[in-house]
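Hi all, posting the design record for the shared folder.

TITLE: backbone redesign
STEP: 1 of 1
STRUCTURE INPUT:
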């Protein structure tokens, strides 16, 4: 009877540890997703800035005949 109680207690402890680790992974994944979202927005803004900066250069190159 003692061994079965110990086995049940160890099983419960193992499941509890897995639960805590799952919650920690979930929290870190959400944080990573927020960071990825913010970074993708920054990349999008930088791409738009680059496109705006390239338009005058492209029109100047077209006017000089360098296609």
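Okay, here is what came back for every position:
SEQUENCE:
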């Amino acid at each position: 009877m003692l061994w079965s109680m110990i086995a049940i207690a160890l099983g419960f402890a193992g499941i509890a540890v897995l639960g805590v680790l799952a919650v920690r992974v979930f929290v870190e994944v959400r944080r990573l997703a927020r960071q990825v979202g913010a970074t993708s927005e920054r990349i999008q803004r930088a791409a738009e800035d680059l496109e705006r900066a390239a338009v005058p250069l492209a029109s100047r190159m077209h006017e000089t005949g360098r296609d």
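COMMENT: The mean pLDDT is 92.
Let me know if anyone wants the other runs.
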